[in-house]
Amino acid sequence: MPTKMLQIPTADGQADAFAAFPDDGVRHPGVLMYADGFGIRPVVREMARELAGHGYYVLVPNFFYRHGPAPVVELPKHIGEEARTAVMARLMPLIEAHTIERTLRDADAYLRFLTAQPGVDAGPVAVTGYCIGGLLAVRTAVAHPGQVAALAGFHAPVGAVGPDNISQLTAQVHFGHAETDLTPEALAELNEALDAAGVDYTSEIYPDTVHGFTMADTDAFNPAALQLHWDHLLRLLGRALGSC
User: What is the CATH number of domain 3-240?
Assistant: First the structure.
């Protein structure tokens, strides 16, 4: 599976990014993938390659590019609980500095760049994300209703966008929540907002999961939940975009 590192021009500089795509000379639907707060690293690159293998051009931007190339903080090979606490202490100021305004400016640049790639189909795109990346994915989909046809978020604080933003979603949606991130009552409130907005969606708590369950380099990893994530994500993309 071909991969490459790219530089995305943005209003605030150059964002480094990872891309994975089929090597068949055919244009494929584009997918903008937002990593979790730990950023682009081997496990995220492998997930992008896996998705690309199903017929998609996958672009993973370093949304912390203003603070340097990925990884913006040093990461151990395995992010255990003790390491996670130390890493998050360094990342939180970056997360807090990543305002809605920055998110939306960057989303414009990322989508413009993705759709301009020679291997990307001219049709609509998908946006998916993990943890904070899921929140960025929702904001991107809300801001680009005519362009984003599919939205997925996993162990992500998607409720933070608020019902007003939820009501603006036009994409087909899947949200996969961790048991530790969302109570059944909070899930019901989120799903009621999606229902009220007429969104075509699935939204569920994945069993026996904690925050970060898709990431194989963390203590939170749950292989069964990762597979459930792939089942839902590929089904969503197939319905909304098709694949080549």
Answer: 3.40.50.1820
Question: Which sequence spans correspond to the domains of the chain?
Answer: 3-240
Q: Is the dihedral of CA 82, 87, 89, 92 positive or negative?
A: negative
Give pLDDT tens digits for 172-211: 999 999 999 988 999 999 999 999 999 999 999 999 999 9
pTM of the predicted model as reported, rounded to 2 decimal places: 0.97
Mean pLDDT of the chain: 95
CB 167: neighbour CB atoms within 10 A?
14
DSSP assignment string, 186-226: HHHHHHHHHHHTT--EEEEEETT--TTTT-TTBTT--HHHH
- Asked if 92 and 132 count as a contact pair (C-beta separation under 8 A), the reply is no
Sign of CA dihedral 131, 229, 238, 121: positive
Asked if 227 contacts 40 with a C-beta cutoff of 8 angstroms, the reply is: no
How far apart CA 48 and CA 68 sit, in angstroms, is: 21
Instruction: Express each pLDDT in 9-47 by its tens digit.
Output: 999 999 999 999 998 989 999 999 999 999 999 999 999
Say how far apart CA 236 and CA 118 lie, in whole Å.
24
Paired strand residues for 148: 125
C-alpha–C-alpha distance, residues 55 and 150, integer Å: 15
Residues 126-170: tens digit of each pLDDT: 999 999 999 999 999 999 998 999 999 999 999 888 888 888 999
